[in-house]
Specification:
This protein has strands spanning 8-15, 18-28, 34-38, 42-44, 58-64, 73-80, 84-91. A hairpin with a 3-residue loop joins strand 6 (73-80) and strand 7. The radius of gyration is 14 Å and the shape is globular. It has a single domain, classed as Sandwich (Immunoglobulin-like). The protein is mainly β.
Length: 96
């Protein structure tokens, strides 16, 4: 949630459960298929809320530091251009 009067930019993430973490978005490739791609940053306009969710904007965990199970939690650090960093708690969930 960006409560400020200025846009902010999510530039990177860190998570204690994975060696690498990327910001991904899901989009239509124009051929009736949804695909994912990494985004280098994500702008959040002023006075707005962005929701991370499966099959949308999400955090992709790469090279896990341990085997994860449904219900495991971890602290995700979100780094922004203007507001420094934000620590949030993430929960491993089934996508169904």
């Amino acid at each position: 949630m960006n409560k400020s009067n200025k846009p902010d930019i999510l530039v990177s993430t860190e998570l204690n459960l994975a060696i690498a973490v990327e910001i991904h978005e899901t989009y239509s490739n124009g051929k009736d298929m949804m695909v994912m791609r990494q985004v280098e940053f994500f702008a959040i306009i002023q006075k707005s809320t962005v929701q991370f969710q499966p099959r949308g904007l999400h955090v992709m965990l790469l090279r896990l530091s341990k085997n994860l199970k449904i219900g495991n939690t971890g602290e995700i650090l979100l780094f922004f251009k203007n507001t420094s960093k934000l620590k949030v708690k993430g929960v491993i969930r089934d996508m169904s």
